[in-house]
Amino acid sequence: MSIPNSLDIPRSKARPPARKAAVKLKEHIVEIISDSGEGAQKCGQLLGAIAAHTGNGIWTTEIIPAEIRPPARSVAGASGNRIRIGSGRITNGGEETDLVVAFNEQVLLGRLRAKELKPNCTILLESIWRTHVDPKIAASYIEVHDRLVAAGYNVHEVPMEQECRAVVADARRGKNMFALGMLCHIYSLEMRLAADQIALAFGKKDQSVVDANVKLLQAGYKWAQTNLDFCYSIPAARPTEPQIVVNGNTALALGVVASGMEICAMYPITPATSASHYLSEIFSKVGGVLHQAEDEISACAFAVGASYAGKCAVTITSGPGFSLKQEAIGLAVMGEIPLVVVNVQRGGPSTGLPTKMEQGDLMAAIFGSHGDAPKVVMAPGTIEECFYSIITARKIAETFNMVVVVLSDAGLATSQQSFPRPQFSETWMAPPVDQSPVPDGAKPYDWDDATGLARRFVPGRPGGMHTLTGLAHDRDSHVAYDAEINEQSLRARSLKLAALQKTLKAPPVYGDRKGDLLVIGWGSTKGAIEEAVGTMRADGHKVSSLHLQFLQPLPSGIKEIMQGFKKVMTVESNWSDRPQDGIIDETNRRYSSLAILLRSRYLVDIDCWSEVKGQPIKPGTIRRVMSEKLKQ
Amino acid sequence: MSIPNSLDIPRSKARPPARKAAVKLKEHIVEIISDSGEGAQKCGQLLGAIAAHTGNGIWTTEIIPAEIRPPARSVAGASGNRIRIGSGRITNGGEETDLVVAFNEQVLLGRLRAKELKPNCTILLESIWRTHVDPKIAASYIEVHDRLVAAGYNVHEVPMEQECRAVVADARRGKNMFALGMLCHIYSLEMRLAADQIALAFGKKDQSVVDANVKLLQAGYKWAQTNLDFCYSIPAARPTEPQIVVNGNTALALGVVASGMEICAMYPITPATSASHYLSEIFSKVGGVLHQAEDEISACAFAVGASYAGKCAVTITSGPGFSLKQEAIGLAVMGEIPLVVVNVQRGGPSTGLPTKMEQGDLMAAIFGSHGDAPKVVMAPGTIEECFYSIITARKIAETFNMVVVVLSDAGLATSQQSFPRPQFSETWMAPPVDQSPVPDGAKPYDWDDATGLARRFVPGRPGGMHTLTGLAHDRDSHVAYDAEINEQSLRARSLKLAALQKTLKAPPVYGDRKGDLLVIGWGSTKGAIEEAVGTMRADGHKVSSLHLQFLQPLPSGIKEIMQGFKKVMTVESNWSDRPQDGIIDETNRRYSSLAILLRSRYLVDIDCWSEVKGQPIKPGTIRRVMSEKLKQ
Amino acid sequence: MAMNIMSTTGCLLEMCDERFELEDYQGGVPRWCTGCGDNAILAAAQRLCRDEGLRPEKTVFVSGIGCSSRFPHYMKTYGFHGIHGRALPVAEGVKMARPELTVFVNTGDGDCCSIGAAHWIHAVRYNMNLTVFLHDNKIYGLTKKQASPTTPIGTKSNTTPRGSYLEALNPLTVTLGVQNVSFVAQAVDWIPEVLFDIVKAAYRHKGLSFIRIVQRCPEWLPDMFEPWMRDPDKVQLLHHDDGLQFSASLSRLYKNQLRHDPSDLNRAREIASSLEPIPVGILYRNPDVPCYEDLLRSDKLRTPELTRAVLDAEFDKYTIRPQGSEKMQA
Amino acid sequence: MAMNIMSTTGCLLEMCDERFELEDYQGGVPRWCTGCGDNAILAAAQRLCRDEGLRPEKTVFVSGIGCSSRFPHYMKTYGFHGIHGRALPVAEGVKMARPELTVFVNTGDGDCCSIGAAHWIHAVRYNMNLTVFLHDNKIYGLTKKQASPTTPIGTKSNTTPRGSYLEALNPLTVTLGVQNVSFVAQAVDWIPEVLFDIVKAAYRHKGLSFIRIVQRCPEWLPDMFEPWMRDPDKVQLLHHDDGLQFSASLSRLYKNQLRHDPSDLNRAREIASSLEPIPVGILYRNPDVPCYEDLLRSDKLRTPELTRAVLDAEFDKYTIRPQGSEKMQA
Ligand SMILES: Cc1ncc(C[n+]2csc(CCOP(=O)(O)OP(=O)(O)O)c2C)c(N)n1
Ligand SMILES: Cc1ncc(C[n+]2csc(CCOP(=O)(O)OP(=O)(O)O)c2C)c(N)n1
Ligand code: SF4
Ligand code: SF4
Ligand SMILES: [Mg+2]
Ligand SMILES: [Mg+2]
Predict the structure, then answer these.
(1) Ligand 2 atom closest to the CA of A295, numbered from 1
(2) How many domains does chain A have?
(3) B530 and B591 share one domain
């Protein structure tokens, strides 16, 4: 066990509850953890929603156990939620936890070992175990409790189940609302808002359920008011426009609806599947179809067929499924069939870490299919971008008749954040399938000499009959093994990327355009990197960051931006060899993915730092990395 | 039609056959082409064999029609063989053809259109069509003939079928031996050797077949002696040790036998399959098993299972199959299971050009699987290397418990070359499966901190029982989602590449180590590049080349070599955007594969030139490219 | 060329407006070997299109990779010549996106029963309204003679030079083992009349109609099909009032006939198991199995208005309105 | 721990040398949900290993991905927990490389019948000597409740919130449709005695023995299996002199029994089609189907000597010796 040894923290139990003034905080990170099935998830979600409705910035992160149903009271079994609540906009999960509500000491231990709790954090610990009939359990509880206290944690024992028993019969299942009540008091949240959220959450069930939960809420509030000697407030900035709070996968699914795509073909795989779950609920309401195929190859081929037939389709998967789709993706590239492929990345290689965050599939997205298979690769950096990137992807796919890969990841997939409520625009959707006759003499692949673009004849168009083929083919779509024709068509498919690239501008630099260090990132690390840069800058460091949404093609202007800095490095969550390892040198160091791409393109000595822990990279870690880099 | 217009070539028909002195040549390129089924293939093979036995260097290239059975007399239907015969060692197919024997004018047209014939090359054309009953055919023949003559080709009409009729009943099927006889005369080859080769080739059938063919051979010889006004000799350098003449796929299959591997799992795919055909003939003789699986995924998983069980296995495929195997390859990487994957590349993307040459799968080999999946990637540059690379691959796979990808291509697959007959060594084979008890306390993944290497417990070893998993795992092979353990294991798998890299040295520079231009290549382009460099150097240019057999990891020492040159470029057969295309600039140009890798690693402005014509790159083309690069 | 014989009464049905001729369906010149059974299948398909008046632009032939999968190139309809083994999922996607199109599938014994076997089983299960031609030549044609799953045991091929090891897979019994199966038939390329009747029945069946066509490959298996063609009794024609009926002339040649009710699944499986004689006709038909596209597609149209409405309803669930934060926290 | 009870007579058979106890096969603590049917399958497998005296180091359990595929981790034998859908080909590779190992396969209804369907069909066809447990809980367990091919129609799941669309695939009829099939049985996790008997018969059968085990998933389908468990008559036990025989006590509880001769394939297919009652027992067994590993492996040992000899013979075919070029060309 790795309990830190700082000891000089006042412990609450020694002091009698006093009349408290709420301490104002800029932000706090709260965790609620339990065995799975005890409702800590729900409690956390509601806390996030209440804070968001209050006007706080939030970022929620699911804490998911590795097993479906891990044994009760097990170290690896923590299930719950982690909510970062702030005064302003919150863009990532932040650092370690400030306050945790734990339903037993074992799940708490798991979090401790994972180093997810601040050294002196506040712990509200269910105390029922102290007097458990099983002496081993009681002993374990007391031992852990005492060690935590000794290690300087601010531990408060809370008789949650006992208190709940006064309110409801099944006290074990009510704890989570009691905890929510405590947290409402601790963070000075409005009970009316909390009751509203409970009504919303349990509204489908009958009113008695809602009432019971509100009672538990109030009991928790009351208990905290009476027994705790602290409370906080996190001033909220009033949003000026409506916001929505969803997680990354919901945002992706909403993006699919908004993009006008009509068919989504998938095969279940964590962490992508929940996007499909949501689509299977709502997609048919707009005439959409969610097809669960027999495997990923079939899902991709199905989407290719649908796209070919005129309805640009999307297929959603994660790493292993993405590997399987490579051949069918190559067919779409060759046939110039628009296609959106979403890869919600998880830890790899192989089955790897199915529920954990990683950015390991960038190279496979760009280079994965055999032969030259140019496709667009983009990555959302925020929950909001999860939504809009799908709309953009569909549009690019159909404009350029290309495959667009969207790389989200497990970090975005289950994290919630608020962003301005999107205003639907008809331009998000494709026009109806063109069924007009094809002009005389037009060819299915009339590659434009400058841009490589060709029109496309979908079935139903009189006069456009031709056979699309994955074999090399000429402008008539006839199989052709001719040397010149092969080069022509390879050229056309590649030029389209350049044509798209001409329309892309480098993203804005976060910070000044000149300085000592530029950090470049992509995808879900955006919030953490920018937060780290922000604090470093506030401390007077000349650092900036650049976050790429397009990884292929890379927008122009990046070189000019890099030239403004003494040092450039990427920060990513995929493997790179550590220079400090004895065997590693410049001739064999394997760089992280974006670093490889940028070094190759710009011939600039871009360093990389990466972490592959299955967890989102923390802003504090990035700060430390930047400081070290600045010192080098 | 694109017949050049040079007209000042003397034509044979005008002159009476004179007594000839053989003109000495350094080399010549000969083609025999026919409809498929007419035996031009066989004639070519025998010519190659006779020349090789004479002591000449040879390189034979198959001319394969795109269809199984193209219509007779069709432009796309040429089937045959092309033999480059030289005084010394021949390392590639060379330039255009010097002399062609064509069984009809249409297949000849196909070769003309493909620009495979030298402008003034000698053509021996079957003349039977001139008087064909179908007036259209006769007219077509006459028209083509006349245009060829007008265009300056040295056309000789040969009444092959008619002459054969005097010898055998089925004259159409005998033409090829007649043609061989002509060629023996033309190139002053020994008839005894020719007869021996015929006996070897038809020996399985009865003696009368051999006799008939020898008669045809003699008839052809005689005809040429009587009717042609030219003949050549290509002095042969006597080889000092025994040579073998095989094509790349046969060499691969022999390598599998020699490597001691016991199981090859495959699914048919062009151009890889012929290696399996050969294995299916001979593998069982050494206790090997060739398994034709239901698909490529299954073939790869089967090989993984066999390797896991202690018999390092190989799976052979081409591009589309390679894409399909990516997930199973990732499992082998994760489980640290030795595995050899051979990819005989063909034109891509998608189904592409199944029978044609390309080097398009390098990036997919390195980066194709999701997550970080470090593996070794190597590429033979000659037929001989096809043989030895498999032996090396097996050894590396089992020493490092890694996946080794061997990238051959359609160019090597069907080309024949002679190289010193290998002397079998027991060290090529792995020791028998270790079945000794596992030492107490040993762990299945006891990653060495410096090299990442771990031992491996194969089933059958008492005390070594554990469950291998594609999930993240600890040293005990237990599923582990722990952040530190995940990084540890990613690190170990990556370090192994560095450990291998420490044992690799940069290949020798072809030419001086200092100069104006260094060309870097990999794989089957070796012979052509070195020939081009050789002639450029003979012309006084300061050019050299470097040919890489290991693409991942890249050996050390490359940077130092590059520093000796003013300019560095790669020459490859995979797509790269042409800088002269208007829309292409330095911010969007897609480089060819090796160039990307080298630029990224060495931050040197390495240019690339590539051609993706489905044909081996010719030395002359490379010379032109180098000249241009020197001028820039 | 299509002959436009506009009726003077201005017939409303689009299909009546135009009549198509065989050549309206004839695409590139077939490049199959002489005597290849694929030619007969092509002829049957073209005749079907003509007889049923299928509009070329509303008809799609989808295939995988193999000799047989070149089929779409030889039609003058839309075609999709995809990747090896994936003809069925591609066709499903086409049909799901555009149910109004008529979709055919051409697949080989390797394409369908080997690499594509999972898709095959599941296509039968989905029961989309597709007509599937399994061109079963019992060999890998295009890649030059390797054993396929349907290659008879003992056959010499390039990967089984000493004879193939396993009993041939029977595509009929496997298909009939799938719960949702709705139409299974067997045809042989060398009885074009029956082949056509079967193709027609398959086309007219709503649901996935699976036709295994025993197809000659003279290039690699010149002798394989000889015995059947020499001895008509080695073919057993299945007839029924609810199935096919055969002409008198045909019946004179093919005397070996069996009355079989295509609604009897157990019996169909038994008959399907017979390797000698080979049954030809409709083995099973169940018109009542619903089609996946009908089950899955809602009657909603994908309009911007509807999209806006549904999106707004969804956003509402997640929305925090500015007024929600009217009261600042202490 | 293994008890070494060396017989004083020095028995030659290795298997007699040692006796193993159940705990010799017990690996990590199972992490399945309480009441999960996988536990019963684990118990049956461990008992089988003990009763048959399988040496743990010579036994390999191979699986794919899914709840059920965690199985090997809970054995103390060798294990291979591979990738989704590919358990069978991996197991085939293991067996082909090392025929002396005893190889079991654990696969789920998604793993085997969905993504792995092609391998399933072909594994049945190869008929390697493997014992296959299909843990059929009629749902995707590990990925949290999506419909699988065997999910009964109308079942609400996370991808079919309004009920699944298709009739469930019947793994038995599909397996029985494969020409080379040699052993098919059905078991249910909640009758451990019969489960064990079936597992034993399967293990003892030489060839691929395919057991579909109806396996409860209380986490996602708490009510699905209730009716069968409540009413013993909904299970029909198959007995035969050449099949299973049931104890009197069991027969008192399970009165619904049927005499079925496992050599009758047509009848097996009919019985397999029954969804209610579900047949439990051996549906089909044919001991005469040869095993692929026996057909494919030569009796040659892979020695350096043999390799040298064969290589030299091959090289000879392609060799040009220096004397061949004795005479230079003019
Ligand atoms: C992924 C992939 N694997 C293998 C191949 C090579 N290949 C092309 S066609 C074919 C089999 C053809 O056999 P079949 O499906 O029976 O069609 P036929 O040629 O006999 O009509 C194979 C293995 C390929 N193109 N793609
Ligand atoms: C290639 C790939 N696709 C999808 C997944 C996700 N996945 C894991 S288990 C599973 C299905 C599990 O269902 P089943 O095989 O029935 O096993 P059970 O969990 O029910 O025992 C899926 C889809 C994966 N790991 N790999
Ligand atoms: S190889 Fe066989 S299947 Fe292919 S075209 Fe020729 S005859 Fe037909
Ligand atoms: S989810 Fe279902 S199958 Fe998985 S462990 Fe739980 S009960 Fe068993
Ligand atoms: Mg075939
Ligand atoms: Mg299941």
Answers:
(1) 3
(2) 4
(3) yes
